[in-house]
Amino acid sequence: MTSDPDARQLRVRSALVSQARRRTAESGLSGFTVQELCDGVGISRRTFFNYFPTKESAVLGVENSFDDDLLGAFLEARDRDASSRRPLVDDLTDLAVEHFAAMGPTASDLDDLVGALQREPKLITAMIQSGRAEQELLIDRITARRGHPDRVEVEVALVAFQALVRLAFEAVLRGDDDVAFADLLHARVESARALFAPPPPTSATAAATRSLVHTT
């Protein structure tokens, strides 16, 4: 259960992100100051920097740290029973869904984000850079654990998965059929799984396998 301080932090964070996006969509990043943003939420300028390092990061919803609780739970779950560990992509999917749910974006929030990105295209570059930083952090944390695959395998998994998350998020921004982010992401993961699944054995391969079995 979320404690009162945690609940208040979530409310403040949500209010900062919402106001930053709305103001940016309306008048651009130069159209308001950090102090004006703080006044609108009812916090001090000093408190703002406990949540976000810049106005840009508030618009994008990028905190000073990457979801340490969610990431820690993700890594601990994979460490508990390495012998029955699920495929990495399945755990990454759960992590992404939980992260999206924790952000709690509403339809209005997403509309404001689209408006902010259209008003300030440079924020798209910042969003990409933030995604790369999170990707590197995940790669480092995953490969540092016992029993995890080598770095190249994790890099391939993360880069491919990040593309699937981007596709699902773009569908959310477009408002495709009002489908939940979790369902959109799961559908794209399953499409990728089918695409990269090993091909069924040919008749010649099957015959060779049967012959090998009979001779051993």
Description:
- The structure is a single chain.
- The chain is mainly α and 216 residues long.
- The protein has helices at 4-27, 34-41, 45-51, 55-60, 68-80, 88-103, 107-119, 122-143, 151-174, 181-196, 203-215.
- The protein is globular.
- The model has no long low-confidence stretch (mean pLDDT 82).
- The termini are far apart.
- It is 75% helix and 0% strand.
Show the helix and strand layout.
Elements lengths: L3 H24 L6 H8 L3 H7 L3 H6 L7 H13 L7 H16 L3 H13 L2 H22 L7 H24 L6 H16 L6 H13 L1
Helix pairs in contact: 1-2, 1-7, 5-6, 6-9, 6-10, 8-9, 9-10
Structural classification: mainly alpha
* SSE order: HHHHHHHHHHH
Based on DSSP secondary structure assignment, what is the total number of beta strands? 0
Total discrete domains: 2
Q: Major sheet: size, sense and barrel closure?
A: none
Low-confidence stretches: none
Distance between the termini: 59 Å
Which topology of the largest domain does CATH recognise?
A: Tetracycline Repressor, domain 2
